[in-house]
Amino acid sequence: MPEAFRDNEERERFELDVDGHVAFVTYRKTPEFITLVHTEVPPELGGRGIGSKLGRATLDAVRAQGRKLSVECDFIRNYMKKNIAYNDLLVEGDDAQVEPETSYKAGCFCGAVEVEASGKPLFAGYCHCADCQAWSAAPINAFSLWKADSVRVTRGESEIGTFSKTEHSDRKFCKRCGGHVMTAHPRMRLIDVYANLLKGYTHEPTLHANYGSKMVSVRDGLPKYRDLPAELGGSGEMLPD
Ligand SMILES: [Zn+2]
Ligand SMILES: [Zn+2]
Prior knowledge:
With 241 residues, this protein is mainly β. It has two domains: 3-89, 3-Layer(aba) Sandwich (Aminopeptidase), CATH 3.40.630; 103-239, Metal Binding Protein, Guanine Nucleotide Exchange Factor, Chain A, CATH 2.170.150.70. Helix content is 13%, strand content 38%. The protein has helices spanning 50-65, 74-82, 130-136; strands at residues 3-8, 13-18, 21-29, 33-40, 68-71, 103-107, 114-118, 123-127, 141-147, 151-155, 160-166, 169-174, 180-185, 190-194, 207-209, 224-225, 238-239. Helix 1 (50-65) packs across helix 2 (74-82).
């Protein structure tokens, strides 16, 4: 796939051309400083790791230009959290790395069980698998996957029942009301807290998983995986909207 990266100073953005589409990061520059404002990856390029490529090329360019960096863009901020080798680019006092941790509570249907998730989920999206369908009695499960140690039970631990149809998923519910709360994925050390239960949380889905067994189509332009993305242990195979 032919790719070209450039600093388009006229339009104040770094651009990555891929197959005739342009992904870009907008910025404001002074001779000494640069602020990365916003990142956009066209939906046509979704699910191909283009965002990460663009993030890396952009930060390498910032380093080469020798400017001190501020980041307003959430995407670049998140990319930098996972790629800490770029931390030295930041102007002193930039709080990209010390953002106060937000936490969100999720309760069962009756309220006896409550859990708290802190920080940000690693992945958020929708699952169309037959198990989620059967367990939730709904066609789609909105998931948010958190590191296991970012989730703790804050109320009603003894009320939590667990059902494990497979060794990959421990599905947890309230024994009093039957309401579903979360599913632990012990092998990945991740916990799916049902996004629609998290109070104050904005679901920002990036993908559809197990679209191969979908009951309904969702034409939202997000990447559709037949099973799971490769980084979650799946085939990475994509399906049309
Ligand atoms: Zn309950
Ligand atoms: Zn599922």
